[in-house]
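so my prof wants the structure for this chain in the tokens format not the other one, which i didnt know existed until like an hour ago. anyway here's the sequence
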Amino acid sequence: MSENSQNMENTEKVDETAAPEKSAEKSLETVLTEKLAHAEEKYKYLYADFENFKKRAIKERQDAMKFGWENVAGELLQVLDNLDRALQYAKPDTDPNLMSGLKMVAQQFITTLGKQGVAEIPSIDHPFNPDLHEAVGQLPSDKPAGTIIQEHQKGYTLHGRLLRASRVMLSSGPVDK
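here's what i got, hopefully its the right format
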């Protein structure tokens, strides 16, 4: 009987040691599962963050290509303004061939800027838009108040973004008699 009681004691001891091992294995499994879930969440977050970074970098590169020459375009518009002034204030007895050639150069200049995304802002007889126009004064006219009646300097956009505002005179409405 002593052998049986010893076997019983050994079995009980094995069962007692097995129970903590099972609970330790279970808690270890739980801890590892939680760590894996946390790592997967972190991976998903970092992956989404990286995808957003790639999209942002692509958009910034595209914007740099579209708008990177904005300063140069502004400088070229001043040259175009001077060319327009030369055509506008040329003496009537200026050689017609010279005037025709200057007009063709000005038109080619405008066409080339247009191919690069530069567009003129329509002004005359349009309502005043403070996002696109700069008012320099008001004059009485038969047009409704707030309508643009004169343009002192043309305005331009570059791919829809304001490059230079139009400087305009507005109608103050009809003169009261």
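also thought this was worth mentioning. Residues 116 and 154 are 18 Å apart (CA to CA).
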